[in-house]
Amino acid sequence: MGSRWKGKAAEATALVDPMSKIVSRLQSSLIKSDSRGILSGYNVLLAAHLEQTEILNQACFGRPIIATEKDKQWFQLSLEEAFYLCYVMKCIKIVGGNNCPLSETELLQYMAPKKDRFPVLLKAYTYLRIKNWVVKPGSQYGVDFVAYRHHPALVHSEYAVLVISEEDGDEDGRLRVWSDFHCTLRLCGSVAKTLLILFIIKNGDHGDVCSSCMDNFNVEERIITRWIPEHSRENHGTEPKKSFKSQA
């Protein structure tokens, strides 16, 4: 299932300004302004000036918050987005209540209890973002994420992403019987998305959540599609020959 662009000029617009260039501009701008995110419960708040506001929207990071300040715009970042900007792109610092930047391990230890399966979801998010996919929550489709080839204003999401790890065990329980596969594939097909499963494999035994344990996660991807018998049958010449009709 290929990309479904929104309008005739959408694909051309995306080719002129690919997501990799947009993210690179965002990275340079945030580093230049020494941007800092503020921990706020289950999110991170990031202040942006006018230029950064436009680039953050183009790069699809965060959600704008209505505020009374005219010279800046606040964005609400998810935990995955904030960690990615901080320790993968290294373009923002994240501070706590004492206004001191948190280390990578401190940030992971803060975020992990806030969200179930956070380390594996973070690894999956990072895996897709590094490949320049725009990643958004996928709960409305019964999956963990949806992945866009470019900005959602230009293209529909292409993949519905399920994240599965060895540590999930019976707590997760997704796709353990064929009926689960069938229902999930039917749902993805009804909204014109391809089911992408990311298996997060942990190498070694790391009891505590830390920066080094994240490096020991490997990702295996599988694309799951429905098997359509009509597309798999071989033609052995058993079909009747079509009669030739002369033109009147």
TrEMBL record:
Top class in the EC scheme: lyase
Domain of life assignment: Eukaryota
Pfam families xrefs: tRNA_int_endo (PF01974), tRNA_int_endo_N (PF02778)
One term under GO cellular component: cytoplasm
Keyword Translocase set for record: no
Record carries keyword Transcription regulation: no
Gene3D superfamilies: 3.40.1350.10, tRNA intron endonuclease, N-terminal domain
Domain called tRNA intron endonuclease catalytic: residue spans: 121-205
Reactions catalysed according to its record: pretRNA = a 3'-half-tRNA molecule with a 5'-OH end + a 5'-half-tRNA molecule with a 2',3'-cyclic phosphate end + an intron with a 2',3'-cyclic phosphate and a 5'-hydroxyl terminus
Enzyme Commission no: 4.6.1.16
Keyword list, A-Z: Endonuclease, Hydrolase, Nuclease
GO terms, molecular function: nucleic acid binding; tRNA-intron lyase activity
Positions in coiled-coil regions: none
Sequence ranges assigned to domain tRNA intron endonuclease N-terminal in this UniProt record: 36-108
Signal peptide residues on this chain, from the entry's feature table: none
Annotated GO biological process: tRNA-type intron splice site recognition and cleavage
PANTHER family linked to this entry: TRNA-SPLICING ENDONUCLEASE SUBUNIT SEN2
Protein name: tRNA-intron lyase
Organism for this UniProt entry: Dorcoceras hygrometricum
